[in-house]
């Protein structure tokens, strides 16, 4: 299975998200290309709209960019896993480096959130990735394996978890696209360490139509997690075509 997904991060209004979802529904139709599993992660304000616009039974999964470990309570500013699911999310992104960097997300909080997501039937999409100094020191594989092991813990029920290997130095406007050779060892290390416990290992960080096929060709890569290049729906559709071999 090739998972192709995008997070809108903190972009798009409800109307913009709805227009994106409507175009996606029209282009993808009732069945995704064979072997391809698309997912879209809008801002929390637009999860409900995107899920409704895609419609029940859509092959495109909808996700949340984060959710709390508690089922409810005095956690101002947070949404819970049940609330994310109630809005239409089937998947929840956890531990993105922007959340680890700016919002004090740690391996321990990611772990609690993975447990909560599984308890509520959401697919956890756990982001792991090393910063530039760790990469330069040759520590990428050890770093991401430690993050993945921390997120999964000793649980036996992690079979739906998706991992996204996202080197911090490759993400966003300040990022440098990673080469297939650079991601091969960390991906292989993740597969060796936890490959039999998760549903897939995705790659993310400056993915674009120009490098998507090469990155998908790295052994052990089960999909791509995309930011900027998929924020226009035509970019996302192009990536779905590439994943489908078209
Ligand atoms: P980018 O973002 O594709 O814009 O580099 C990737 C991500 O943060 O997941």
Spatially, the strands of the biggest sheet line up as 1-2-3-4-5-6-7-8
In the CATH hierarchy, what is the class? Alpha Beta
| Total tally of structural domains | 1
Proportion in helices: 40-55%
Number of extended strands: 8
Q: Architecture, CATH level 2?
A: Alpha-Beta Barrel
Question: What is the ordering of alpha helices and beta strands?
Answer: EHEHEHEHHEHHEHEHEH
Could you say which structural class the secondary elements and strand pairing correspond to? Answer: alpha/beta
State the CATH topology. Answer: TIM Barrel
Please report the distance between the alpha carbons of the first and last residues: 16 Å
Q: Tell me the overall shape.
A: globular
Global mean pLDDT: 98
Number of helices: 10
The major β-sheet equals:
8 strands, parallel, barrel
Bound molecules: 2-phosphoglycolic acid
Strand coverage percent: 15-25%
Q: Could you name the CATH homologous superfamily? A: Aldolase class I
Which key phrases capture this entry?
single chain, alpha/beta, TIM Barrel, globular, binds 2-phosphoglycolic acid
Task: Describe how the helices and strands are arranged.
Blueprint: E1 2-7, H1 14-28, E2 36-41, H2 47-54, E3 61-64, H3 81-87, E4 91-94, H4 97-102, H5 107-119, E5 123-128, H6 132-136, H7 140-152, E6 162-165, H8 180-194, E7 200-204, H9 209-216, E8 223-226, H10 233-243
Parallel strand pairs: 1-2, 1-8, 2-3, 3-4, 4-5, 5-6, 6-7, 7-8
Helix pairs in contact: 1-2, 5-7, 7-8, 9-10
The protein binds 2-phosphoglycolic acid.
Give structural notes.
The chain is of the alpha/beta class. It has one domain (2-243): TIM Barrel (Alpha-Beta Barrel). Helix content is 41%, strand content 16%. The protein has helices spanning 14-28, 47-54, 81-87, 97-102, 107-119, 132-136, 140-152, 180-194, 209-216, 233-243, and strands at 2-7, 36-41, 61-64, 91-94, 123-128, 162-165, 200-204, 223-226. The protein has an eight-stranded parallel β-barrel with strand order 1-2-3-4-5-6-7-8, surrounded by seven helices. The two termini are 16 Å apart. The structure holds 2-phosphoglycolic acid. 2-phosphoglycolic acid binds next to strand 8.
